[in-house]
Here is the input.
Amino acid sequence: MADEMIENPIKELRNELGLGQVEFALLLGVHPSNVGHHETGHAAGLQRAMRAGLDSIGFDSTKIAKRYAIWRDQKRKRLLKRLQATKKLEVSVE
Here is the structure.
């Protein structure tokens, strides 16, 4: 799974439920910007309010948090590789 790119688990779940960001936020009891921050990767980890909201509707927030961390790390590594390819950054990517 390390080489295979996974989807953002928050966005994936929201899309599976057929909800927009505002509707999903309402369902979870969080602000819509909270959903957006998680979908773009701006949130460093799955925030407490998101975890509580996911748990309250029957989803395993621990599992989703682990997938989110993997997705965000993959996103970071792709960014570093892109910068290396354009010679704008000279840092090794592990």
Remarks:
- The chain has a mean pLDDT of 91.
- Residues 41 and 72 are 6 Å apart (CA to CA).
- The chain has one domain: 9-85.
